[in-house]
Amino acid sequence: MLLTITTTRLPDGSPATDLGFLLHKNPARVQTFEQSFGHAHVFYPQATEEHCTAAVLLDVDPVALVRGRSGSSGGPRGLDQYVNDRPYVASSFLSVAMNTLFATAMNGRCKERPHLVDVPLALTARLPAVPCRGGEGLLRALFEPLGYEVDVTAHALDENFPDWGESRVLSVELRHTLPLRALLAHLYVLVPVLDNDKHYWVGEDEIDKLMARGKDWLREHPERELITTRYLKYQGRLTRDALARLTEGEDDLDPDAAAADHAAEEEAIERPLSLNQQRLGSVVSALKGAGAETVLDLGCGEGNLLRALLKESQFTRIAGVDVSMTALQRAREKLKFERLSERQQSRIELWHGSVIYRDDRLAGFDAAAVVEVIEHLDPPRLRAFERVIFEFARPRTVIITTPNREYNVRWESLAAGTLRHRDHRFEWTRDEFRGWADRVAREHGYAVRFLPIGPDDAEVGPPTQMGVFERE
């Protein structure tokens, strides 16, 4: 298996061979490193001041791998353990080798040329054989959002039998101007994702590896859920933990702290209008009008809407979902769950989860209510939310409420130019909300109508705006 990384003369005029300092591998000699699966060789087929290419060649011994397994001597084993594509294609073996060969480079350390660590370099990476379960489209979806120019060459499964179609193994060239350590991190994470397999057991420590190499860029990647799921070999608990850790540090408030003060802070501003009660009443009325019997309350907080829904016999199944365990516990307490009748308890469920991660539990409901939630999501999370609700869960009806920024001038207690809560990432005008909602409805096969909540001021509109999405 071969990987090459090529650069030209560096931006500060340094010779291209300074790539060797960044990789901590001397261009003047071949170096060999023993691996658990064979050997890894690093050498430079080209090393001039104008062009320098570093190559990694893996010599994978599949027989040694099988013999090295505990208990490998007992019981029959398939021939595919001895005869397979692992010695020839980029896979998790390459990632393991990169962590051995280039750990210092990936960690951003270079004693001889420290000023080059974060300098964007014109880099070209070539992988002559990459197994891609998902085809060229997946490969582009993983690398192009990171800014790479991607060239792909497909290969026939067998050139002697063209009717057999194309192999899943592709030849790939990636071009980008970025720091070397960023390229190495992208390859380290994404090569096993393309292969959709790993040659070793995936446990808790694999989340730490993903955070170390991916947290800086993966949190903004549009396919971060797919990447995380494949990287952790579809282990649901590990995937959920990793996705939660990816968003750590993005918020000024942690979920539990936000849950503790969010309702009180907004209520203090909105109390003169009893806006919260009007909002809940409007949502319940819209749900009843839609004929919904099973309802999701996404971002349920302390359960205000849940209590209102529980009073209506029309709703036979109600699920409250929140990212904060503290909020869910308070919702349970305010519902007086332990004192509810058995029939009432059977109607309601409380789940720990997030509106930005795909969750199979969310499917199959008639309606979803998302009350004063979206304004807490930054743009990448908002896009993830759109897919989770409108593409994957796809309830027949979705009701979303959000503040109308134009109305803020009517709040005497709110300083000019500030938002209603310090954790709000945005507050939309009526036109902005309509523009977003119209696009989402159009892209996902819904129709949307808009209703005011609270007094509809002739100049600035209502304090809260509501969109009711109906699947076409």
Structure description:
The protein has 472 residues and is of the alpha/beta class. It is 35% helix and 23% strand. It contains 16 helices and 14 strands. The strands form two sheets. A seven-stranded antiparallel sheet has the order 2-3-4-1-5-7-6. A seven-stranded mixed sheet has the order 10-9-8-11-12-14-13, sandwiched between helices. Strand 8 (294-298), helix 12 and strand 9 (317-322) form a beta-alpha-beta unit. The longest helix has 16 residues, at 180-195. It is elongated, with a radius of gyration of 27 Å. The chain starts with a strand and ends with a strand. Mean pLDDT is 85; it is low at 69-77, 249-261 and 268-273.
How do you describe this structure in short?
The protein contains 16 helices and 14 strands. The chain has 472 residues and is an alpha/beta fold.
Any descriptors?
single chain; alpha/beta; 7-stranded antiparallel beta sheet; 7-stranded mixed beta sheet; 16 helices
Approximate shape: elongated
The tally of beta strands, per DSSP, is 14
Low-confidence stretches: 69-77, 249-261, 268-273
Computed over alpha carbons, the radius of gyration is 27 Å
